[in-house]
Amino acid sequence: MGNAAMCREDRKHRPSGFSQCAPHEVRLAATEILRVAGFSGYHTSVIVDDREYFFDSKGMMAAPPLSSHAIGQDRFPKLQTEVIEIGRSSCSGKALVGALQPLFENGSYDIFLKNCNSFSDISLYYLTRTRLPGQYNRLERFVSATSPVSTGVLNKIFRVLMERKTGKPCVEDVYVRNPEAESYSAEGAIASLDGDASESDSQASDFEEHFAPRADSFSLVGWNGDVSESDSEASEPPSYSPFEAPPPRRSASLT
């Protein structure tokens, strides 16, 4: 069954998901980049050895460690990225790509229903049999559990931010659910991984990653946009304004 089957079998027999002797180091990177309605929003990614993996509106991405967290740090140095040691895995980053490609396809991203934190959660499960700590996806879980009320409230907040940014009335909803993400569930993704005996390494093509972040924008689980100027000196993480088209960037899309 190749490396994927070996990784899967190894995970099934590790109750804690941790192995001191496994060859690949696994870390979680998290940056708080939004506070809205009393909730914090985070961008997270998973680092395997010397490569970072994350999911955004362009699909699964790979880059040097912390590249996706560096965007906006020049303008907003108070944004702090935490790197958490998760453990070690017998699965490589290449195996991770092959296993998760069918679950996180390009075009299936949604800022609340299926975002970078969804990807980090399933990546940690695949690699170490652990899950994303709850504080990093609390906002998304709240939105999913209370929709459509919560999405209506958030759209009101987003419209106010957009009007403040552009000086023009905003009557349309800023956030609209992506129908390609509505059927996604973490439980379903985990069940798929546990039941899939395909060879992940054979599905993952060789790639060379180049990532060129721009300092004038940053990514909240895949949405790129400028931060409101009035928040630039705030003691809290700046409010996020997801109202602009993503700037051109060189990156490695794995889907």
UniProtKB/TrEMBL annotation:
A Gene Ontology annotation in the biological process aspect, one of them, is: proteolysis
Record-annotated PPPDE domain positions: 24-158
Q: Which UniProt keywords apply?
A: Hydrolase, Protease
Q: Which domain of life is it from?
A: Eukaryota
The Swiss-Prot or TrEMBL record annotates one GO molecular function as: peptidase activity
Gene3D superfamilies in alphabetical order:
PPPDE domains
Q: Where is this region: Disordered?
A: 222-255
Which PROSITE patterns does the protein's record reference?
A: PPPDE
Q: Which family does it belong to?
A: Belongs to the DeSI family.
Q: What is this protein called?
A: PPPDE domain-containing protein
Species name = Alexandrium monilatum
